Amino acid sequence: MLKIEMIEVGPRDGLQNESALFTTAQKLELIGRALDAGVRRIEANSFVNPKLVPQMADAEAVAAGLPRRDGVIFIGLVLNKRGALRAIEAGMDELGAVCAASDGFATRNQGMSSDASLAMCCEVVRLAREHSRRAQITISTAFGCPFDGEVNPLRVVEMARTAAAAGPVEIAVADTIGVASPGEVAALVAKVGAAIKPLPVRVHFHNTRNIGLANVWAAVQAGAKIVDASLGGIGGCPFAPRATGNVPTEDVAYMLQRSGYHTGLDLERLIGSARWLAGAMGRDVPGMLSRAGAFPKKLPEMN
Ligand code: ZN
């Protein structure tokens, strides 16, 4: 059976744009629920300036409370070297370094040029390896920038090639503002995959224009092996105007499993977690499987 690894990004990308602050205990409950549903790699927090992203101000407290289990890898997102040192100090297993394919986004999100953000990512990978940690690199705005507009795919491929040489576990292309289409995704994933072989490609989509799942499907068909998703489909980005939620973990898992892929995730537990999240946030989540229920296993609980 074909395997797709899903990374849960709800505790970081999902929550960071929520105006209502989650307590550390609520974040740890979300993380625990994801692990109970079979998640084995999870973006738990980000080590960024708490003044800019208040929801992530408790990154160290989350790290200290992580429910450690065999085979589970906790990722801390970092946007600069200072954040990387904090994540290492806090005991994160894997550092998620982010660069941007466009200068407009790199400047606003990270206070540096696109080139500088790529160099920073390579430096973060070296730091992580020095401290025996894993590291991944994500190229954000790989399909379009809210400030600069269209992004040249060749630029993304070149960045991926440079990033791969630093020695991360994978390279991701991220549709930070949800503008990608399946055709573009298939083309870029294939090109990046060829450029970074044998490193795998990870993809990160937002469902801003309601084609997030189609993009996941196109990416998987083009060879992507790892997919970021967030329980309930919550999420956004404080520096990407009008970006909405990530693709919902439970909806993506349903699509892939019904299509014959192995994700290692338990759909009923994912649905339960998405419903818990809706309760914690006091509103419906964007994901649809938690409303409709899985098929053919069990009928959804009526409420
Ligand atoms: Zn995102």
Q: Give the percentage of residues in beta strands.
A: 15-25%
Our Rg estimate from Cα atoms comes to: 18 Å
The CATH topology is given as TIM Barrel
Q: What is the helix tally?
A: 12
Overall form: globular
- Secondary-structure-derived class: alpha/beta
Mean pLDDT: 94
Query: Hetero groups bound?
Result: zinc ion
Using DSSP, what is the number of strands?
A: 10
Distance between the termini: 36 Å
User: What is the name of the CATH class?
Assistant: Alpha Beta
CATH homologous group name: Aldolase class I
- Residue stretches low in confidence (pLDDT < 50, at least 5 long) are none
The CATH level-2 architecture is identified as: Alpha-Beta Barrel
Domain count, please report it: 1
| Helix content range | 40-55%
Looking at the chains present, what oligomeric state does this protein adopt?
single chain
Order of secondary-structure elements:
EEHHEHEHEHHEHEHEHEHEHH
Sheet with the most strands: spatial strand order:
2-9-8-7-6-5-4-3
Query: What profile does the largest beta sheet have?
Result: 8 strands, parallel
Summarize the structure.
With 303 residues, the chain is of the alpha/beta class.
If you had to describe this structure to a student in words, what would you say it looks like?
- By secondary structure, this protein is an alpha/beta fold.
- It has one domain: Alpha-Beta Barrel (TIM Barrel), CATH 3.20.20.70.
- The protein contains 12 helices and 10 strands.
- An 8-stranded parallel beta sheet has the order 2-9-8-7-6-5-4-3. A two-stranded parallel sheet has the order 1-10.
- Helix 8 runs parallel beside helix 9.
- The longest helix is centred in the middle third of the chain and has 17 residues.
- The radius of gyration is 18 Å and the shape is globular.
- It starts with a strand and ends in an 11-residue tail after the last helix.
- The site of zinc ion has 7 residues, from loops.
- Zinc ion (ZN) binds next to loops.
